[in-house]
Amino acid sequence: MPITLEQATGARLLTADEQELAVPATLRYTSADPQSVHFVFPPWISLDGEEVTWRFARVLLEQGMQTPAVLGNVHVRPYGPARTVVELRAEEGVAAVTFATSVLRRFLVSSLRVGD
Fold first, then answer.
1. What phi and psi, each to the nearest 5 degrees, are found at residue 73?
2. Rounded to an integer, what distance in angstroms lies between the CA atom of residue 28 and that of residue 39?
3. What is the predicted pLDDT for the residue at 100?
4. Torsion of CA 54, 97, 62, 83, to 10 degrees
5. Which of 8, 45, 74, 92 allows an S-S link to 56, with CB 3.0 to 4.6 Å?
6. What whole-number distance in Å separates Cα of residue 100 and Cα of residue 22?
């Protein structure tokens, strides 16, 4: 039976005019999809008013917290000494969201425990 780990956290959406908008996010990992992580955002953050889920490689998140990493349309890189930025690039544009690196690190460690 698959095990799902969910961790609610806060994030900051970087806007085009260089402002930061606080947004809630849920970090999700499921043992049914052991190579991936999911970042879930509320409907009001999206252009179409639907909940947004970004799914990408867990290893990309791990690498991107140390040094810039890219896989497809997802870019992850350090953002100052204590934050990590995750960028999703799509036809509509780029969404850049920052997280506390310590929160992402705890989530990854927990996901490794669940996945092993």
1. -95, 10
2. 6
3. 97
4. -160
5. 74
6. 12
Burial (0-12, 13-18, 19+ Cβ within 10 Å), 52? middle
Rounded distance, CA 22 to CA 37, Å? 21
Q: What is the C-alpha separation between 81 and 44, in angstroms, rounded?
A: 29
pLDDT, one tens digit per residue, over 34-61 is: 999 999 999 988 778 899 899 999 999 9
Cα(86)–Cα(98) distance, integer angstroms: 6
**Residue-level pLDDT at 116:** 57
DSSP codes of every residue in 78-104: E-SSSEEEEEEEETTEEEEEEEEHHHH
Average pLDDT over residues 62-77: 96
